[in-house]
Amino acid sequence: MKSFYQIFVLIAMVGIATSCSNQPTTTTTEVAVPVTVEDVKPSSIEKIINTTGTLNSTKTATLNTQMAGKYKLLINPKTRRPFALGDVVEAGQTIIEMDDAEYVLGIALETQKLNLDIAEKNNQKQKSLYEKGGVTELDLRNSEVSYLNSKSSLEKANLQLAKMQVKAPFKGVITDLSYVTNGTQVSSGAAAFSMMDYSVMTIDVNLPEKYINDVHIDQPVKIMNYTLPNDTLQGIVKELSPAISSATRTFKGVISVNNPALKLRPGMFAKADIVLDRHEGVIVIPKDIIVSNQRGKSVFVVDNGTAVEKRITIGFDNQTQAEVINGLQANDRLVIKGFETLRNRSKVKIVK
Question: Where are the domains of the chain?
């Protein structure tokens, strides 16, 4: 009897505990989600094509000696040391001279100058006499021939002497230089130096077929390189091929880039954004705050402490921004941080 009584008491206690656990709980208050907002303002956005390519110099030259002689690398007046790799040189500037005393004596430059002076004075004298009837026309013509021959001989002598100098054909940068000890005898045709002009550069690109009617000559291009993360250079579309490759479904283009400070270098890999069109005074938002699902694209705005989901329609977009052509208005308080956990009509708290 005692065991039966104990079992009955235990069952009664369990029933009471179960009854207490079924009592209704108190409803908790919804917690406001902290978010960061910014007011929607009219802005501008560009429709672009992203492409890449290798930068090329517009001018290159490799210079050789034209005459044999003793090698002499000249002093760069800008650096006050012998010319070296990376030096900027002017068009017509002499970089290397060849010395051959016997060759120079054979040209007899001073004799050629004196002969020209004599021929010129004799020709002037013959003209004066001819006008007074003192000489025949044949005498005048012979003096003119003598003068022209002397002039040609001097010009030829100067050209021969010029072959002793190796000069820069244009303004550019020395990219290769043969290091020869001054005074060493070198032969004609020996390598002297190489140079480039990359103050203006080009990029060869391949563009998708679908843009064949959108890309035009002289369209602006923005050029970027990973070595210049905060600097964008300006270029234009210079050339376009009308032919589309059947293998790649692309067409070729050439972009010209102004590089006056020589920040970009030949051989660098560059990113090029071809600007197809630009919209001004439109609503532009960060692309990474757009929520996409089966119902479309949406963002959240704050209205009286509540997050309101807004369905939007996108126009132009690029890697970081998107134009909203429907769904937002100027001065809407757009949620840019904390939107990941929001639902329509969620309570929010604005934080900086």
Answer: 33-45+280-350, 49-56+198-279, 66-97+169-189, 103-162
Beta bridge partners of 181: none
Q: How many of the other CB atoms lie within 10 Å of CB of 174?
A: 19
Architecture per CATH, domain 49-56+198-279, reads as: Beta Barrel (2.40)
pLDDT greater than 70 at residue 57: yes
First to last CA, the chain: 73
Residue 7 binned pLDDT confidence (cut-offs 50, 70, 90) = very low
Q: What is the C-alpha to C-alpha distance for residues 149 and 111, in angstroms, rounded to an integer?
A: 14
Judge contact between 336 and 37, C-beta under 8 A.
yes
- Model confidence, pTM: 0.68
What does the alpha-carbon distance between residue 255 and residue 238 come to, in Å, rounded to a whole number? 5
Instruction: Domain 33-45+280-350: give its CATH code.
Output: 2.40.420.20
* Locus of tokens 């179960």: 18
Q: How far apart are CA 33 and CA 339, in angstroms?
A: 9
Give the residue among 289, 153, 270 at the shortest CA–CA distance from 202: 270
